[in-house]
Amino acid sequence: MTALENLVQNLARLPGIGPKSASRLAYHLIKTDSAYNKQLGLNIATIQEQVFPCSICGSFTEVDPCPICDDPSRDKTQLCIVEQPQDVITLQSSGAFDGLYHVLGGAISPLDGIGPENLSFSKMLKRIAEGHFKEIIIATNPTEEGDTTALYIRHLLKDKKELSITRLASGLPIGGDLEYADRITLARSLKGRILF
Amino acid sequence: MTALENLVQNLARLPGIGPKSASRLAYHLIKTDSAYNKQLGLNIATIQEQVFPCSICGSFTEVDPCPICDDPSRDKTQLCIVEQPQDVITLQSSGAFDGLYHVLGGAISPLDGIGPENLSFSKMLKRIAEGHFKEIIIATNPTEEGDTTALYIRHLLKDKKELSITRLASGLPIGGDLEYADRITLARSLKGRILF
What's the confidence (pLDDT) of residue A169? Predict the structure, then answer.
């Protein structure tokens, strides 16, 4: 296999990139600024050495604990539970929340073999038991799996009468992904969150 | 800027990849097989050292002359003129042509500041003068720029009465790019090429 075929084949393994887009990207890379290629290549090759999950919240970080967990000015009475590390960045970009986060690492999905034991619920319960939270905001995706996960969290916390448990307001398109919502919709869902 | 932001920003510079796709790709890269990342990173960083234009036809190659120019079994009486190196691979994949290629490096486009002097016409004329071609197949894109370029080539070759000058048959969607045509359409346009 030639270097070009190899590049095309590896690019085509990226999500959302088919064989034609992969060869278009490859030809672009052949003709583009070579310093940029070297930089992008190095970025890709080394990203996993530089980015890892925060030992407290589980979101991606380059220092441990992550800048959000480590920020003394954030509201330590609010905990926002999300499925994926990228959801933290998406919610942060809405600018409507300044509490803490907890990343589950996914949603309960028996069809994909993901049960509660595969997600960081015990760590979440430990944080809630040891912390000073007044409100738990469930920000799982508005999908079947996200809804199941939200119900499961409400069940886990049913004896914590002192906690107010809320969920992001509707306004998010049903069946979609948090990641693809626009900032205003996200900010509105945070502001209008409802008791769950 | 963090390593992750850096990666997202560099991915977003690729054609057809916006900021949201870039961050989706970045998160995929954080979680995927790390050997794959290293390989893809190396592919991207080194592609320009491995792939260069063939000194005869101008298509991308990893040996000079390219395997097509160097193949004694190919029909040396037919020369197919294309705009871009990737068009050679697209036409090759149709399996309907086994002559030689000549890559112009683009199409005449005064609005983009690309005149005949920026394209490899003199090299093309030299090849035609020194070779044993009987037919010149113009396979520029069916766009305004491609049509202009085709007319210009016909004008350049107007005194070569011994050459038959053809153009890919219609069947290609007008305004489109060669690269995105399917193989059958391409094979049909090659078979049904018309005198120009």
Answer: 77
Tell me the CA distances in angstroms from A71 to A67, A85, A103, B109, B167, one per residue in order. Answer: 6, 18, 17, 55, 66
Tokens, residue A99:
């509490």
Residue contact A62–B4, C-beta within 8 A: yes
The single-letter code of the amino acid at B129 is A
Q: What is the DSSP string of chain B?
A: --HHHHHHHHHTTSTT--HHHHHHHHHHHHHS-HHHHHHHHHHHHHHHHH-EE-TTT--EESSSS-TTTT-TTS-TTEEEEESSHHHHHHHHHHT---SEEEE-SS--BGGGTB-GGGTTHHHHHHHHHHS--SEEEE---SSHHHHHHHHHHHHHTTT-TTSEEEEPPBTBPTT--GGGS-HHHHHHHHHT-EE-
A–B: how many Cβ contacts below 8 A? 137
CB contact under 8 A, A20 and B47: no
Of A28, A85, A179, the CB nearest to B14: A28
Cα B189 from Cα B186, distance rounded (Å): 5
Rounded Cα distance between A98 and A101, Å, is 9
Instruction: Return d(Cα A74, Cα B179) in angstroms, integer.
Output: 52
Cβ of A24 within 8 Å of Cβ of B179? The answer is yes
Could you give the domains of chain A?
3-50 (1.10.8.420), 76-167 (3.40.1360.10)
Measured distance CA(B3)–CA(A176) in Å, rounded: 28
pLDDT bracket for residue B186 (50, 70, 90): confident
Taking an 8 Å cut-off on Cβ atoms, the answer to whether A40 and B38 are in contact is no
| Predicted pLDDT at A171 | 65
pLDDT attached to residue A175: 73
Dihedral pair phi/psi, residue B88, rounded to 5° = -60, -45
pLDDT tens profile A80-123: 999 999 899 889 988 889 999 999 999 999 999 999 999 999 99
